[in-house]
Amino acid sequence: MAPYTSLASSSHDVELGHPEAKARGDLRISPPQGLRRASSLKRRQQERTRRFAVGGGVAAALVLLLWTFTGGRREERREVFGPPPSLVRVGARAGTAPNATTLLTSAAPARSYHDALRPDLRYLTLDTWSGWSGQFLTVLSQLYLAHLTQRVAIIPSFRDADHYGDAMITADLLMDFGKYRREHGALFVFWDEVKPLDRAHATTERDAIGCYMGVNSFEGGRSFDEHNLDQTIWRVPRPGGHLQNSVEALTLFDYDDEDRLKRLRKFADKEGREIPPNMLDSQLLCYSSLWDLAHAGALTTGWAWYEGFRGQQREAGELKDMLALSARGTHPEWWAVGQYVDFAPGIWDIALNATHHTLGLDYVPKNLITIHLRRGDFKSWCSAGENCTPTVDRYIEKLEPLLDLSPPGTKILVTTDEQDDGDFLGAIDALGWYRVDHRALGTKAILDARYGEAAPWADAVVDQAILSLGAHFVGTSGSQVSLLTELRVAAWNGGETRLVERPS
Q1: Cβ-proximal residues to 388 (8 Å cutoff; 6+ apart), any chain
Q2: Coil, strand or helix: which one is 288?
Q3: Region Disordered: what ranges (predicted)?
Q4: Domain 343-500 part of CATH 3.40.220.10
Q5: DSSP state, 121?
Q6: What b-and-e string marks burial along 315-341, b requiring 16 or more CB atoms within 10 Å of the CB?
Q7: Strands 364-365 and 77-78, sheet pairing
Q8: CA distance 484 to 482
């Protein structure tokens, strides 16, 4: 199937102030023809009266037309998509930001990772788990902690056979990490730049790599073995008691080599385990998982990463209300890193065209509200085993206060992973909401043509780009897609967000 094509438009459809109008330069207000300058006060007064009458009539007609076709208001267009402008722009100011050429030895990618790492630099790595959203969030945490501890992040390859088949990708296929590197001077490389994929363990050496327990109990990983890395997880307690999973505790654990090695050796003796070489020095530090970090201040007030996956912390208390979202202690990795990581241009191309076709417009309305109705495996994820997902009415309840913040005629754009429940989909359509129907749009064929075997990965990201267009957003609690969209709408568009809780 051919790629999407833009909707046809004519000069009569172009609104004043729109880029197309500015580029053409042929839309302007001209004075009525045939009017002659009057030589007397009476003639000038008569002429002014007639011109006001004519102009007022035309203006009234235009107002009536706009009111009829836009629900009583002129619809504003969104001209800018994605992250806020960077105030840093390190790469733009200083030239090319450091990359694998300068952050690794000339032997990279090497048969053993030991030969690829520069002895004068410190590195931080981890393996990833979960689907696209979980792995992306993990990388944001990794980049944030690497920045705080002055390390080079080695970003893992992404693999998830449960959802996306056997294809492996690097995160920069779908997100514009190159732009983030240029603008912020972030120091990172990808594992396939350090050591190539060797799924059969035939062309590289088997490297042992020891990883400290991260911020949750998950010990698995999806990609290290594909690089012929033999990972072991070490549950070495960090200082800080109940705050040992805070950003502050992780940072001090890194810098206090003496204390860390003392704790490591004590743990190894107790468990009768041999310590991998990378854990005996400070060059390569590895964690099992860093998904969703929090500062000590958030942890002491009772917030934890697993409590509803809420992107915008809304605890009671006047101080919390006064603090900016970025200062409330939750998701610091998002505010420091994630909000500046844009979608790759190819993802934007598909997402914007799908949005245009769904809305029947050749632009994106500025006051659009987006909704994410997560169903999928949630349909059986509750104690009852049935009726585990919210009804459409619950989303309407959360939507109403956002409509009060929006002008009349605001459009509602919906994405959902539900494809087969006709009653559910019909209930959405009956509301007059605009539902993105990828089957009707032929999105799969387009993704297959552009991304090949990695198309299922790209499919997971396109809807996130669409949802990020909302001036406000309603999502589903417990969904990482909704979490990321909450954060994007808050950071990119300054919007309000609401989450619908699932039945218990």
Answers
A1: 378, 379, 380, 381, 382, 502, 503
A2: coil
A3: 1-47
A4: no
A5: S
A6: eeeeeeeeeebeebbbbbbbbbbbbbb
A7: antiparallel
A8: 5
Q: How many residues can be counted in the chain? A: 504
- The answer to whether residues 132 and 102 touch, using CB atoms and an 8 Å cutoff, is no
Tally of CA atoms within 13 A in the half-sphere of 267 that contains its CB:
16
Distance CA 195, CA 227 (A): 6
Mean pLDDT, each 10-residue run in order, the chain (504 residues): 31 29 28 29 37 44 43 73 77 75 98 98 94 94 97 97 92 96 94 97 97 86 95 95 93 97 98 97 94 83 53 54 73 93 98 97 96 77 72 92 95 88 87 95 97 96 98 91 93 92 78
CATH 3.40.50 fits 90-293+331-336, yes or no: yes
In contact, 153 and 124? CB cutoff 8 Å: yes
| Among candidate residues 9, 5, 227, 216, the one with its CA nearest the CA of residue 113 | 227
Distance separating alpha carbons of residues 328 and 243, to the nearest angstrom: 16
Q: Which of 271, 191, 190 is nearest to 228 (CA)?
A: 191
In sequence order, the β-bridge partners of residue 414 are 371, 435
Question: What are residue 317's phi and psi, to 5 degrees?
Answer: 125, 135
Three-class HEC string of 430-469: HCCCEECCHHHHCHHHHHHHHHHHHHHHHHHHHHHHHHCC
Nearest to 465 by CA among 173, 81, 131, 77: 81
Q: Where are the domains of the chain?
A: 17-26+34-69, 90-293+331-336, 343-500
Q: How far is CA 304 from the centre of its chain?
A: 21
CB-facing half-sphere around the CA of 3: CA atoms within 13 A: 12
Give the separation between CA 373 and CA 371, rounded to whole angstroms.
Answer: 6
| Cβ–Cβ < 8 Å for 154, 110 | no
CA-CA distances (angstroms) from residue 258 to 254, 263, 282, 302? 10, 9, 10, 31
d(CA 213, CA 263): 13
Q: The sheet that has 229-234: what strands, in order across it?
A: 188-190, 152-155, 123-126, 284-287, 207-212, 229-234
Query: In this predicted structure, what is the pLDDT of residue 326?
Result: 75
Domains 90-293+331-336 and 343-500 agree in fold: yes
CA–CA separation, 188 vs 201, rounded Å?
25
- Per DSSP, the residues of 474-501 read EEETT-HHHHHHHHHHHHHH---EEEEP
CA 487 to each of CA 43, 347, 380, 495: distance values in angstroms, whole numbers, following the listed order: 63, 19, 27, 9
Burial of 231: CB neighbours in 10 Å, binned 0-12, 13-18, 19+: buried
